[in-house]
Amino acid sequence: MVEDAREELLTVREVARRLRVDDTTVRRWIKSGALEAITLPHRGKRQAYRIKKSTLDQLLNSSLPVE
């Protein structure tokens, strides 16, 4: 039952591919607050994020244009 409560988390690259945009665009949306994401501990050159699949689904189902 606990596994049912877990939600799929997507990387910035996975979200970018699904939306057909560049990784940088997804990162910009996260930093501006347009896309909710989970911030992971910083390692390396770039901040790592994970986006809930439900958040992406909401974005895709909304009638608001994404800029």
UniProtKB/TrEMBL annotation:
InterPro entries: DNA-bd_dom_put_sf, HTH_17, SinI_DNA-bd
Domain Helix-turn-helix positions: 9-62
Gene Ontology molecular function, alphabetical: DNA binding
UniProt cross-references to Pfam families, sorted A to Z: HTH_17
Lineage top rank: taxon: Bacteria
UniProt-recorded name of the protein: Helix-turn-helix domain-containing protein
